[in-house]
Amino acid sequence: MGHYFKHAVAKHTFGKLDDFTFWRLAHMLRARHRWNWGRLRHHLTAATGRWQITADGIKFFRIAGVTVSRDTYRDTRSQPHGRPRTPPDGSNRGEPVAQ
Known about the structure:
The chain is mainly α and 99 residues long. The chain has a domain at 6-65. Helices cover 36% and strands 4% of the residues. The protein contains 2 helices and 2 strands; from the N terminus they run ααββ. The chain has helices spanning 6-33, 37-44, and strands at residues 54-55, 58-59. The chain has a two-stranded antiparallel ribbon. The longest helix is centred in the first third of the chain and has 28 residues, at 6-33.
């Protein structure tokens, strides 16, 4: 059951990492250029009204926008290649056969 929620946790972690990285860059820009918050907002606000960090045509990639999806094919019976399958009745377990 623990593996069921790992994708939701990944999405939440990506969001937190995205926020952390964005605000670290914002604080770095404030310190480097000695901007106050109003000047920072002036420089980072795009025409759409959203904050956006860009430099020389390179845009900060928002990792929270990455799609996290579950695998569509899951087979619990599959084993790695090179190992023989054990029949469901357990007749081939490598145990000595009683006669």
